[in-house]
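Practice problem: Undecaprenyl-diphosphatase
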Amino acid sequence: MDTIVTAILLGILEGLTEFLPVSSTGHLILAQAWFGYDPALWRQYNIIIQLGAILAVVVTYFKTFWTMGTGLLRGERKAILFVRNILLAFLPAAVIGLLILDVIDAMLESPAVVAIALIVGGIAILVLEKTIPTREEQGVEALSWKTAIGIGFVQCLAMIPGTSRSGATIMGALAMGVGRKTAAEFSFFLAVPTMLGASVVKIVQEPELLAGTATIGWTHIALGFVASFLVALVVVRAFVAYVSKRGFAPFAWYRILIGSVTLIWLFAF
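Answer key — structure tokens:
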């Protein structure tokens, strides 16, 4: 496949899946297996296009970030609680991620791990959808510190490729009594420090990723970044509107389908 076409398609895939409970990392790993491109050549690219998806969250919720940022400087309680909850939820992934980074990297090479995690996660979502009642929306700042840090620990499950960072945080929040819209938005806000932190760690460990030695050119990276940003911009808005009314079951069935097809493909061929 032409590398420019690959760059655009992977950017679209990242934008589509990053904030849905279906695992963007898992989909990128499966794309490597399905289409046969060399993941080592695209490591720089895969890290940077995630930043395009992050930018989509910042743009979509710019007013919220601005209000909370300026409110924090003024010492407003609502802003302080908002920032506290995001930071508390971020801490478990920051600490545990650094401790088991080598284990995570090893799992990133296994499409089978992704497929199984997709299926297990899909079943978990269906169970939670059936057992958890609809909750009243509270707002991120209204969550207790215990709920915030609990969601942070649940997010660590997403270190298993195919689990889905957004899926883990949203389902964890729902299980702790958070409303659907608040759970989805908390997942988006938490993605900013989590994904930025993961990208910075990778770049610090491997400075050659930004030193011009990567084989994928900056034109390809720019195309993927823009594609990821634009698609995520649409997905973030649509996702909140959809799950607020209809829930997460369609995403669960999609996970089970993709995971099952992948396992059949891996073992049959």
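Discussion: DSSP finds twelve helices and no strands in the chain. Students who identified this feature from the tokens alone can consider the problem solved.
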